[in-house]
Amino acid sequence: MTLDDKTVAALAEQLENAELNRAPITKITDAYPDLDWDDAYAIQDEIRRRKVAGGAQIAGLKAGLTSQAKMKQMNVSEPVFGFMCDYGACADGSEIEIDRFIAPRVEAEIAFVTNKEIAGPCHIGTVLQATDFVLPAVEILDSRYENFKFDLISVVADNTSAAAFVCGGNAKRVQDIDLRTVGIVLEKNGETVDLAAGAAVLGQPAESVVMLANMLARKDQVIPAGTFIMTGGVTAAVGVERGDHIAVRFQHLGSVSMRFV
Ligand code: OOG
Ligand code: MG
């Protein structure tokens, strides 16, 4: 950790204001090149504290940069973790105001909902045993940095670009589906723009939950029972504009769609 509490608080405030005012800022490592992981998560934790103090509820947790496609797209090699707020939840099939965002991108994800506490260090067996069901989702990302110019440390501080999410389709018991071979097709305005299989995420999306639990264990935290977890984009993230219709078709899990207005 290189920052004092005052600087953490100031950077968290800058990032939250960038989100609230849709006014992107330069990546924080420009001003603080020596920031480390602990600094980045301390800033993210402070944003979370501010949100909860302001009346928002935490709707779930997320892992990001868990697929080869995303790691390549972002030129990084390690997953990152963040949280989602209740006000980011959008209904399946709904119209979403594009002006809520700075430069939104969408990506297909498989979400887990737990029914038991998961304490790391753990393994995939622990995660599968504690999973109530899985369901298809789309994450709407929005970086608070200008032109998405960021590095891993900056994106963690910015709550991993979390902005909104849509869940839909059919929930399935995790033991009734082979998540590795689930086919996923991302369509924009009726055209296929990307496709993937569940194995794109760390070989099996449940591994994202393992990594999340293990990361939290280093901070003496657990994944509580009943947690909604987005396991990371299986496809690359695709930019959207006003008028765009997005539909993601998940084999066995139904589809998720939305229109940006
Ligand atoms: C970082 C967030 C990555 C995912 O699922 O890979 C993420 C970004 O691309 O802005 O949520
Ligand atoms: Mg994501």
Give a quick set of tags describing it.
eight-stranded mixed sheet, binds magnesium ion, alpha+beta, binds 2-oxoadipic acid, five-stranded mixed sheet, 261 residues, single chain, globular, Fumarylacetoacetate hydrolase, domain 2
Order of helices and strands: HHHEHEEEEHEHEEEHEEEE
Distance between the termini: 42 Å
**Quick check: average pLDDT?**
96
* CATH T-level topology: Fumarylacetoacetate hydrolase, domain 2
Class from helix and strand fractions: alpha+beta
Tell me the helix content. Answer: 25-40%
Total number of strands: 13
What is the secondary structure topology, with strand pairs?
Layout: H1 5-21, H2 28-31, H3 37-53, E1 58-64, H4 68-74, E2 80-85, E3 89-90, E4 94-96, E5 105-114, H5 124-129, E6 131-141, H6 152-157, E7 162-167, E8 183-188, E9 191-197, H7 206-217, E10 228-230, E11 238-239, E12 245-250, E13 254-260
Parallel strand pairs: 1-10, 3-7, 4-13
Antiparallel strand pairs: 1-2, 5-6, 5-10, 5-11, 6-7, 8-9, 8-12, 12-13
Helix pairs in contact: 1-3
2-oxoadipic acid is lined by residues 64-66, 70, 74, 107, 139, 141, 143, 155, 160-161, 232-233, 237.
